[in-house]
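re: ur question from yesterday

yeah so i grabbed the chain u mentioned. its 300 aa long if i counted rite. heres the sequnce exactly as i have it in my notes:
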Amino acid sequence: MDRFHAIQVFIKVAEFGGFAAAARDLTMSPPAVTRAIAMLEDRLGTRLFVRTTRSVRLTESGDRFLQDGRRILLELEEAEEAAIGSHAEPRGELRITGPVLFGRMFVTPILGDFLERYPMVNAQTLFVDRIVNLMDEGLDVAIRIGDLPDSSLIAVRVGTVRRVMVASPDYIKNHGLPQRPEDLSQHRLIQALAMGTSPEWVFQENGNPLSVRVEPRIRMNTNDAAIELAVRGWGLSRLLLSYQVAPYLADGRLQTVLSAFELPPLPIHVVHQEGRIVSAKVRSFVDFMVERLRADSTLN
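ran it thru and got these structure tokens back, copy pasting raw so excuse formatting
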């Protein structure tokens, strides 16, 4: 087994947390995977995994080698792309991450259309409401909402979203409409924990920050649940991003509240790792995604 294949096997075992699962993904037998890891450890002169009857986890050396291995394979892919030429047909596995609801509402349909166009590309998604490291997770492309820290990532801005407070027409009819953030103390509040747990909700007035202390009656760990309860007329919900409730605002099931006190919009970026050469699959997908997202009126 050559070194590059051994590194691929090692990365799969690390990602799946087990030899059997990695073997299934690689269409190899478990003994072959075990032999590949043993040969790699012999070559390196160090243990890469701690094996027990119930788990397989990386050693400190294995964790370092995982990062180096991913970099080595990326550089190999870049070299192959350079040899083939910049107009190569996109191929290989594309790994994408983004927020859960954004992934379902926007990335999923765009990705489906992309795969229809490029049949030699496969894809894997990681939709989570947290920032993940592209290199550590072996990811190619990410959707990031919010201001970006300085990094080596290439970022393309595709739109903005607002941080909105919403309520159903029935709730407003039965409980009235708050005129200022301070009025929220008189209302039933739903807090979406995916967007934070602070007891203070921040607004702005005439460009100046305005904070109010709130006591939500219910705290929900998913945005879907908070939206559902607001649609049912139970209370006001804050810390929702405008794209998450766009369908409900469009058909009138929800309406925005305290719009005059909203914070500035948050930018949306499509980001990918910087490299000497961007692979055809990443370059094509980023261009495809950017064009589609910029054309979506709900993100502008």
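noticed a couple things. DSSP finds ten helices and 14 strands in the chain. also Residues 92-158+268-299 form a domain with the D-Maltodextrin-Binding Protein; domain 2 fold (CATH 3.40.190.10).
anyway ttyl
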